[in-house]
Amino acid sequence: LRNALLKKIPRFSSVNLSLASLNKLDINVVEREQFALYCGDSSTTENSICYFLDNTGFIFDLAPAFSDGVYFVYASRVSLESPMGKQFLPPEEFKSVLQFVESLPTLGMRPLTLTLAGEDFDITFSRGAHLILKRGSDLSLMYSNLSSFLNSESIKAEKDFLEKVTELDLRTENKVFYQFK
Questions:
Q1: pLDDT given at position 32
Q2: Which one, of 156, 154, 155, 178, lies nearest residue 168 by Cα?
């Protein structure tokens, strides 16, 4: 019964069953908490069917329409088929990606979406810029490289660098490539 309920209702994170008496079964459930959105093949919530996902990357319920920016959005260029009840990424990989994304504001970057694009992650920021990472990379090393790059004298000397850049590419080991508008 526990497994059937967990499979049938992905919103449940746990189900506990106990016999209160010979004729009474107590069922206690814990619901997943809404953490972010999964929006299929689009990185905006405007024209996409979106689902809630929890902080492990598990997609568990259809989400109502939201204005952009209410929730962080995870997307994929190739939509997951019937995403409810599936993981966006394996839990350990999702945890690593989540830590990376949550550390970006300390560098002055406000991420809005992360799109799985083949073997890459494409993170979009509030100013429209993109940060591209190779999936499977050491994200703590990527963060260190990005931090060193943004704190270098030449980049600091560039007035409003993050306002002018359209793309930061970290797919090449120990290098950051960038493009301006």
A1: 92
A2: 178
